[in-house]
């Protein structure tokens, strides 16, 4: 028995999605098996309208021979709206063993045809309630139903943001619905199952309606009413009775409206709540609403409805304050211990009219006072006015703050003490599934990983924002594209990026240009910079690589193509991009005085990304089977490469722009080859070393810097960069107490002062893109691009070095859990690898000899699940099927000795005297490669063969030490 099971069945990434409008939903599943090397040979997938009756299914694939288990499209009869479909899956493995059926799962449709939306948009009568007034609107509707309700759904959306209530209770757990889309082109609606909240007699639906992104303050220019100047709601309540009849309650002019205790609510500025004017019971039956105002039907609202695409925004965690203290300035301040995004929930017992004010900030200044300067115009202030009726509880409804510290004013003390236990932090972000784990033997690197994750949580709030605290919080395209691969390791971001990319496509200009931010709320003309607009290509490709989402790739293809063609039209030479405004290497440390843009030539950067996007577009055309475009963009890519070398590489093979970012882009985007590539890698390494192992890169170069080093023979330098803890470095901020990623390398300077107030976020995830290198290089988990979604896994950890002796990463891929965990001791190297069923992996064991490797205690070639073992230079390459594997092999002590010798030889080559002697006996010898030691071996061979008698004490000593190194130890070099 193999205990073959089908588990974790999902539809459109989600478990039992309620309210989708996809015409051909895609089903995915995972496989469990106790047998190593399990692969799927075939599947069967059935869909039924009844949960327990699959005898006559609506659709049955029958026995379908295929190893595919992701994104299998429903191809049965046309789906009907507002209908639940049940499905189940079984599979056969490669030996013909058949699984049981999976547990029955379901999806439920909302409105397949957008024309089925019958509810009208309503808003408070503008003659009675000023549409421009600050208080949050309350809307209500009383209604009665018949007996024996079978099921009930509410389909609702609103502008700006709304909260739905039914018979005195909140409906669902969602916050800030309907989220932020390009409202004039697309607006999401939500589906709620309210069967259990309805009464068979009287009922009340209530809606709270705030400004949100639709008409509230947005951008640092204090723009308002960007999408419209009125708030509105549209809603269907669809009830099905046990007798088969149906009833609908819709928004219309029979609803009533008022204002309530939320006097003010803005995303940037906070909320003011006066509990004294609460209308108790307003959302329940029997409330007297005779003094409420009327509503009117309006046609001035969005009409392109789409069902909720991404995961909703919710409270995902609660944090208790770590301490409360009094600052030197005399302020009472709560420390949450973590820079978070969300809100404070408080309890208080106070006299009526007591005003409690909470002011939120990220850091303290060097004197220990709370610091608000970097918020710019964002007030991040919450005010609660007590009604004086026992213990009261409150948390803001329609705003969020980015903060670690909270200044508290007006809170009554209890017996002379501040009751910290009456405050709790509620963490708010898009409720994505956590998929990634990463840890090392280095505590600072572990904190860096936590900072990356918290930065993502704080900024993935419906859109991928740049920062969550100041008067910005916009979906900057450049930030999203540099971070997306890291993001998709830490969380399942398929739905999140699907929704955001659809907005990118919707907001893309007719000429193919891409706005700086999505949704686009910036002035005309602020768009289409390289590395920002390239999000149109890089993001859908990355989602495809990680999740195998070919449909999204196809959906975005024209957008991708339009961006590349936009670039192509920009200058006189179609193979270069050297025109227009460019943001360049944003915040590069090699920038001129008073400039945000780094020293790397902007036309080099723009042409490099032009090449990269063109290559990805070509690869997309290959995946989608667009043969003519494959030919077209292959030719364009070749032309860009040629002209890049003509324009930016000198006759002597040197890059014209001598910056870290220039080297990085040329190497990582494969723009140079041969001797030019070797020189670029060498000079990048030299540049880092000469800078005392510090970086000078900005937003463009930083994400790729360590990849450029590790993949070109300088991994040791990359590790030293990671572990550097003085400014500028990833770990520097941690030494200053950071719990998220900073916008600037020196947001807090070594002397405790701050970078300029005008742009200094302490929660800005872009530099957290180093996570991608940590997961793919240090831990070694990567994907074979020919078989996306980790159907074929690459495990190639970079093992070695005294600073990091253990690394573990685990990733919940769509096929199941992948793990790579290595540990070094004085005696051996241990590598644990987990591969999920229906995938295979290529594992590369570094510094290993095939005959010395054991797996789970036996010779590797005799181990079950091992498909092949080969020796490739210093690597043992193992092809494996699914299962858990434990590789162990000797940690050759001679390695450390040879690396030490190699380092000393490098030093001797810097000395003119010893360099001359070495070149005499080994003509043309150049600086050794620390990872290959080829020149060390050359000297050893010369000495061993008796061809040279080197008359120099230091060199003689090196030769003697080399002769003590065993041949086995040299083999792994």
Automatic annotation (TrEMBL):
Protein's UniProt keywords contain DNA damage: no
The entry's keywords: Hydrolase
InterPro entries attached to this UniProt entry: 6-hairpin_glycosidase_sf, 6hp_glycosidase-like_sf, Alpha_rhamnosid, Bac_rhamnosid6H, Bac_rhamnosid_C, Bac_rhamnosid_N, Ig-like_fold, Rhamnosid_concanavalin
Segments forming domain Alpha-L-rhamnosidase concanavalin-like: 327-428
Record-annotated Alpha-L-rhamnosidase six-hairpin glycosidase domain positions: 433-777
Alpha-L-rhamnosidase C-terminal domain segment(s): 785-856
GO molecular function terms noted in the UniProt entry: alpha-L-rhamnosidase activity
GO biological process, one term: carbohydrate metabolic process
Catalyzed reaction equations: Hydrolysis of terminal non-reducing alpha-L-rhamnose residues in alpha-L-rhamnosides
Ranges for domain Bacterial alpha-L-rhamnosidase N-terminal: 148-317
EC numbers on record: 3.2.1.40
Keyword Hydrolase recorded: yes
Protein name: alpha-L-rhamnosidase
